[in-house]
């Protein structure tokens, strides 16, 4: 799918930027893949979410990052027959998040809590496909492009010297002329750090 290839390219770009920053400044870099959920207010429900991030450390506590994530907010499949012709199809409403931010961690143990601030954009779009009588069609349209801000916190739980797990919860608000709303994001990530000491 085109949207997933965009996400993968974005993650590769972020990882490359993190490596470049590590080499150029002698700091540490971190890559992170995560999964979890997003809950939309106003009866929007809870949906799965997955993505990744990469960034670099400034000192021992401050971490700057870029991130991408993807969620399917609604989907349906259908099949109908009329006049001896069967038409089948599917449609979905999706959300691609992209942006960046900073987190500040406390302590130096194997459990390091942190607070986070983030800014970015949300691309809400609908896509669908259908086929019948030997003919098929695909369609995609933008529902809204939105600015978002987020705050939250989490904890890095080191399993090894350079890697571990990162549960996180975040409040995120989307704002645009087409829509506005509040969401809660809760994810668990697997991170790896390299460079630095």
Short précis:
With 197 residues, the protein is mainly beta.
Number of domains: 1
- Describe the sheet with the most strands: 8 strands, antiparallel, barrel
Per CATH, the architecture is: Beta Barrel
Radius of gyration from CA coordinates: 20 Å
User: Based on DSSP secondary structure assignment, what is the total number of beta strands?
Assistant: 8
Q: What is the percent of helical residues?
A: 10-25%
The poorly predicted ranges are 18-25
- The CATH C-level name is Mainly Beta
Q: Could you please say which CATH topology applies here?
A: Porin
The geometry reads as elongated
Annotation field: number of helices: 1
Secondary-structure element order, N to C: HEEEEEEEE
**Beta content:** over 45%
Class per helix and strand makeup: mainly beta
Mean pLDDT: 84
C-alpha termini separation: 40 Å
Order of strands across the main sheet: 1-2-3-4-5-6-7-8
Topology diagram in text:
Blueprint: H1 2-25, E1 28-40, E2 45-58, E3 62-82, E4 85-105, E5 111-132, E6 135-158, E7 163-175, E8 180-195
Antiparallel strand pairs: 1-2, 1-8, 2-3, 3-4, 4-5, 5-6, 6-7, 7-8
